């Protein structure tokens, strides 16, 4: 007899992973001070694949309002600059040889609203990831029921548990995003 496909512990791990990923992305949204985590979500297309920025350059914060990105390979300076520019972080890269300087602008009201919008976008991505995990769980339950590994009552009971877990994790994602938006907007 085949083993059931449904694994509640795995679903919970994957959902919590989505929330942790969101928290990591939100930590990169700084409120006016240079922080190397600001560039963590950026991926660069180099050597024919997408890589995290820190896999092809060194990121440092030499001053409170300045980040520097030292690119290891001269040929990747332009793709790194484009990736930073298109990341939607409102940073204006200044190329100086293999070093890219990123002055951190003062947070105007408009900039605060942009960052709050970006936090909302990150939160929506996390909610989608959590819902995708829920869908995987529900499909696994239906497959197990179809193979007669579990009864209809067991499937319904487990679906209720999966939905409860989904609601908890979406609530955690929403709370993390709301706290970050509050911090950004200074309320």
Outline the structure in words.
The protein is of the alpha+beta class and 187 residues long. Helix content is 55%, strand content 16%. The protein is built from 4 helices and 6 strands, in the order αββββαββαα. The strands form 2 sheets. A 4-stranded antiparallel sheet has the order 3-4-6-5, with helices on one face. It has a two-stranded antiparallel sheet with strand order 1-2. Strand 1 (43-46) and strand 2 (49-52) form a beta hairpin. Helix 1 (8-27) runs parallel beside helix 4. The termini are far apart. The model has no long low-confidence stretch (mean pLDDT 86).
Parts with pLDDT < 50 across at least 5 consecutive residues: none
Number of helices: 4
Shape: elongated
Order of helices and strands: HEEEEHEEHH
Summarize model confidence as the mean pLDDT: 86
What's the alpha carbon Rg, rounded to whole Å? Answer: 21 Å
Profile the largest sheet. 4 strands, antiparallel
Strand composition percent: 15-25%
Q: How far is the first residue's CA from the last residue's CA? A: 58 Å
User: Which structural class do you get from the secondary structure elements?
Assistant: alpha+beta
**Main sheet: strand order:** 3-4-6-5
Protein name: Ribosome-recycling factor
Family: Belongs to the RRF family.
Organism: Novosphingobium ovatum
Keywords: Cytoplasm, Protein biosynthesis
